[in-house]
Amino acid sequence: MVCNHRFVEYGESKGQLYGTSIDAIDEVLKRGRMCIIDIEPPSIHLLRLRNLKPYVIFIKAPSPESLRQTRRNSRIITSYAINRAFTEEDFLELEETSHLIEAKYKQYFDSVVVNDNLQDACMQLCSVIQQAQNEPQWIPVSWLHAED
Questions:
Q1: What percent of the chain has pLDDT over 70?
Q2: Host domain of residue 120
Q3: How confident is the model at residue 131 (pLDDT cuts 50, 70, 90)?
Q4: pLDDT at 53 over 90
Q5: In a domain, 38, yes or no
Q6: Using a CB cutoff of 8 Å and minimum separation of 24, what contacts does 114-120 make?
Q7: Mutual orientation of helices 64-78 and 88-105 as an angle, nearest 10°?
Q8: Do the domain assignments include residue 9?
């Protein structure tokens, strides 16, 4: 399948192969369902196909201050000891990575949701999905023409 370009993305992690196949996405869409995919940013452009018609939502990291509070709250809520405490560098790296992803790939994003407050972010995400389902969306003109 890799040689036949049947994956949107694929890779190996800890000796295990993984991938998101175009056929699996097509099967979900043929059943009239919405296919939600968590994909690495460099692969976003591969989804921009006429048959997939993606609606891309970027879940953006909040500020380091918000992240610190979220980590403190998670320990209180779950009373679970985290194996590795986040360092200041981790918080700053996450924020920087989020900014870099947005700067490099924002032309592919249909919407951006900032994960600042979990409940608010979930409500906003649901609202964005509902809007994408119910309202007309702009698409590239090339998706309207028959394939050659």
A1: 88
A2: 55-138
A3: very high
A4: no
A5: no
A6: 114/60, 114/61, 114/62, 115/59, 115/60, 115/61, 115/62, 116/62, 116/63, 116/66, 117/66, 118/70
A7: 120
A8: no
Question: Is the residue at 114 inside a domain?
Answer: yes
Residue 49 falls within a domain, yes or no? Answer: no
Residue found under tokens 């998706």: 143
CA 88 vs CA 13, 48, 63, 94, 137: distances in Å: 27, 36, 12, 10, 40
How many structural domains comprise the chain? 1
Question: Of 132, 8, 111, 136, nearest to 57 (Cα)?
Answer: 111
**What's this model's pTM, rounded to 2 decimal places?**
0.78
Distance from C-alpha of 125 to C-alpha of 114, rounded to nearest angstrom? 9
Interval 80-94 mean pLDDT: 71
Question: Which two tokens mark 82?
Answer: 């985290």
